[in-house]
């Protein structure tokens, strides 16, 4: 083990070229020992870096596999003058090889313990395969489902996002990285406000007030820091007109000084050089100058630092102290991971074969997929499926392996459990008959004829529809968030049969459900459910599992409403729902204001009845919090889980406050006829917000409190903050 003084001494032994190279992150094809080593010369020439810089570089992006990483680390260490090991990093976003539901789906479980477990398993599989750092969790708050990377977030609410951010960090990192070698260092991203890109278009401009930034977008990053996250990734976007990778106020003033972050700050892919395209740097030299002054320690996949930092130091424009600080932070992380004592850490080909994609891990993936599925509609209780019924399973996802979603790391589509296979195993091949019906984007007359033939022999049709994985994720922004026309045409043909129709949707974002909602008797949101997705969704459809997922993003009536989110402000001319004919109020003339499905929404195969609210006092003070209770009874015939949600509205603030804000929730599992009590404690601290001067405090006055099954369907009471 090396103490901090020894690490500082090690920095002092490094040449300036070695130090700047330590700040460089490259992909594996630059290094000896990989099956891509024959490709070294081309990328080096393209980037204009020397073999010496490669030998002194600090980290590798994207390589995995225990033996491959051992080989590269060994070859590297043989050439490292000072014996400084490499860091190996990768995008392990929702699983390594055992793929869990996409993070947006995980959010809909409202189960932070299971989310933490998924990150722990992802870390275990990654670490034994040689990795040290994951570029996760992504905690960007998102209100625009057009943005492809919405699949990586846990939703539109800062409080819930913060809970999941901390849970993921705990899962990845554990309590002690040096001792728990089956853990990873986590890297929270993207700092900051990447999810607010204009028009939902990836990499686009973000422009908002600092008060809005602090109130809604920063809390989840701060929660990750409070949980001990070791790394932060700068976002691609501008913040207040300055690209994040060169934003001193964001990175130095807020992240480092105000929040006290002492870990490693890394750029996103090529984002330092992208300051030129933004118009914030004239050339690579100025980009390097701005990024190092902002405090970015590692430059991912561009050579601005190695080319220009030595000259910037020689000219006196940049202090070498900034480089020393950055290098020290990188070495401190390597020491926390125990790499100086064991450069190979947990990499072990034999254990890798035992641990990765194990039955135990896949079981947790299955459980999370069942809890992430959200039942959106169930007219006439056509779900769960009658085991004696003849089912026609039709659609491009009936037998699709493409259910892992974007950022599935080492996941293999062929390993995913297909819905058709799982449903036939449960109900029998004589009861479940399959037809493709259409492709994701195309449909033929032959497919229609086959679908109608299969449907004619069935009692009920299950339609398996959705987006392919390329339709969301990074670079997957869309202006039309309906399903492709081919699938909407398929629905119309099958609706004409008059048979009951249940639609299952596999997708990476909230959709405009026109063409699905009105044509389907039941709608089940499966998201991209991961490796065990088919098994999980089959068990939800058949009632083995009672769905309990709740939406963490609102579903719009149409894309024209976007952004639409529950914690919006009122206006000076609010719409009165009883007077929709009024013109000069804040409304659309061709659509309701409200989303089709609100934040927190989700159905069950049972029903729940709420008793009246019990509030301990009509006044709340610093010394006396409120206790809020409500009894909930399962009035149906199945055991189910109800997620009881607590919202608050500050009626009058120094700046306007949202109509509702989630403050807490309780999950009650109740047997038929059973009554449980959801108990909440509300304190003055939970009522604080950022004022116009950015001070963080509460306002005395009237507050409304709402409790219910989602952000729309609630009971109301009120109290005074005194």
TrEMBL record:
<dbReference type="Pfam" id="PF14310">
    <property type="entry name" value="Fn3-like"/>
</dbReference>
<dbReference type="InterPro" id="IPR002772">
    <property type="entry name" value="Glyco_hydro_3_C"/>
</dbReference>
<dbReference type="InterPro" id="IPR013783">
    <property type="entry name" value="Ig-like_fold"/>
</dbReference>
<dbReference type="InterPro" id="IPR017853">
    <property type="entry name" value="GH"/>
</dbReference>
<feature type="domain" description="Fibronectin type III-like">
    <location>
        <begin position="642"/>
        <end position="711"/>
    </location>
</feature>
<dbReference type="GO" id="GO:0008422">
    <property type="term" value="F:beta-glucosidase activity"/>
</dbReference>
<keyword id="KW-0326">Glycosidase</keyword>
<comment type="similarity">
    <text>Belongs to the glycosyl hydrolase 3 family.</text>
</comment>
<keyword id="KW-0119">Carbohydrate metabolism</keyword>
<dbReference type="InterPro" id="IPR050288">
    <property type="entry name" value="Cellulose_deg_GH3"/>
</dbReference>
<protein>
    <submittedName>
        <fullName>Beta-glucosidase</fullName>
        <ecNumber>3.2.1.21</ecNumber>
    </submittedName>
</protein>
<keyword id="KW-0378">Hydrolase</keyword>
<dbReference type="InterPro" id="IPR001764">
    <property type="entry name" value="Glyco_hydro_3_N"/>
</dbReference>
<dbReference type="InterPro" id="IPR036881">
    <property type="entry name" value="Glyco_hydro_3_C_sf"/>
</dbReference>
<dbReference type="InterPro" id="IPR026891">
    <property type="entry name" value="Fn3-like"/>
</dbReference>
<dbReference type="InterPro" id="IPR036962">
    <property type="entry name" value="Glyco_hydro_3_N_sf"/>
</dbReference>
<dbReference type="InterPro" id="IPR019800">
    <property type="entry name" value="Glyco_hydro_3_AS"/>
</dbReference>
<dbReference type="Pfam" id="PF00933">
    <property type="entry name" value="Glyco_hydro_3"/>
</dbReference>
<dbReference type="Pfam" id="PF01915">
    <property type="entry name" value="Glyco_hydro_3_C"/>
</dbReference>
